[in-house]
Amino acid sequence: MPSVTMFTRGAALSALLMVSATPALALSKTNLARQAIAEAEGKITAANRAGVAGEAPHMTAQAEALLRDARVDLARDREGHAIAEAHRASELADLAIGESQRQG
Fold this sequence. Notes:
Structural class: mainly alpha
Largest sheet: none
Strand content: under 5%
Shape: elongated
Distance between the termini: 9 Å
Low-confidence stretches: none
Number of helices: 5
Number of domains: 1
């Protein structure tokens, strides 16, 4: 059950980050991209800690690659691409966590 606890903590932290963002931050695409990247980083960290069974490592590796791409796009002022890649990385990390829970 430690992986469930980690996932719950990660989800709570993500929710707290979203709620604590000020309206001014929400208007900036750069800040939205940074927020999406930070969320993906947290979920990937939780996925890496959750387990190494089944498809989870493959999904986590894909999420990490998307996160790297998101960082590059943000650095090149392509915030829209960065946001989309970070969101996809978060989704894959969530799937990896779910997979590791099913295997565990």
